[in-house]
Design brief:
Layout lengths: L1 E10 L2 E11 L4 E5 L6 H8 L6 E6 L2 E2 L7 E4 L13 H13 L7 H13 L15 H15 L3 E5 L7 H16 L3 E6 L11 E6 L1 E6 L1 H4 L2 H7 L19
Parallel strand pairs: 3-8, 3-9, 6-7, 7-8
Antiparallel strand pairs: 1-2, 1-4, 4-5, 9-10
Bound molecules: adenosine-5'-diphosphate and magnesium ion (MG).
């Protein structure tokens, strides 16, 4: 189980996250939702120790810090430099290199793990392509393969459903279901607001503070939209127009 206790992050003296406490159980798919700039990416990066924070992050009862091999991270696509000259296969192999030590060549077992993972996401045939030349959905599948090959117990995915095709979405949902059945813990950031949020076991609504933590039905209320988006929408029409507020 993942447990975050009283986590706060400041960027140059400005609070990005204040006193966040949450948990995510084994076999649970948790959605982390909130408006642009709410701190979703910051929360994931703070859990990984990539940005300085106060508070505690525990996994299976002990601090997560220094136990990176237990955690797979799929970064937000918009934050990746796609001009970097690296192939899809090399991206999928990256976690293996850091597990073995950067200057060792990967073992045959590591190569096999990556091959199986690329096959699972139907990307093995494109493994020699530069990552920057793939479609958004294909890039997302390569990062998912990297996470799968790592064999982590905790998966943190930042906006994996943004800018992808239907095939990738279906494939990711099938893999998420398998990972839950294996008892993995999954936390997924999302800007979506709508029926798709019912795919999560639980939703955490974030805007600098944790505003709600409950089932999708309980979190997806008009009141909660207003609490998360300050002024709230300009119209009292259906929820879909507010999807623009999430990105
Ligand atoms: P989200 O992922 O929910 O869109 P972010 O975590 O990216 O939100 O950002 C939360 C807030 O922190 C925003 O106000 C953003 O401008 C700020 N922020 C994010 N990263 C940095 C950084 N490296 N330096 C300074 N401010 C940052
Ligand atoms: Mg983000």
């Amino acid at each position: 189980m993942l447990e975050v206790k009283n986590l706060s992050v400041n960027y140059r003296g400005v609070a990005a996250l204040e006193d966040i406490s949450l948990f995510a159980g084994a076999g649970e798919l948790v959605g982390l939702i909130g408006p642009n700039g709410a701190g979703k990416s910051t929360l994931i990066q703070a859990m990984l120790g990539l940005v300085p924070s106060r508070g505690q992050v525990l996994f299976q009862g002990t601090p997560l810090r220094g136990r990176r091999r237990l955690v797979a991270y799929v970064p937000q696509r918009s934050r990746i430099d796609w001009d970097y000259p690296i192939t899809a296969g090399q991206v999928a192999m990256m976690a293996q290199a850091s597990l073995a030590g950067w200057f060792r060549s990967p073992s045959p077992q590591a190569k096999q793990r990556v091959t199986v993972a690329l096959e699972r996401v139907d990307m093995l045939h494109l493994c020699d392509r530069p990552i920057g030349q793939l479609s958004g959905g294909q890039q997302q599948r390569v990062f998912l393969a990297r996470a799968l090959a790592q064999g982590a117990d905790l998966l943190l995915l930042d906006e994996p459903f943004t800018g992808i095709d239907k095939k990738t979405e279906a494939l990711m949902l099938a893999i998420f279901a398998e990972l839950r059945a294996e008892g993995k813990t999954l936390m997924v950031c999302s800007h979506e607001w709508g029926d798709a949020l019912h795919r999560y076991d639980r939703l955490l609504l974030l805007n600098r503070r944790l505003l709600a933590d409950d089932t999708p039905e309980a979190v997806m209320t008009f009141d909660n939209i207003q609490r998360a988006y300050g002024q709230g929408p300009q119209t009292t029409a259906k929820l879909t127009p507010y999807a623009d507020f999430f990105c």
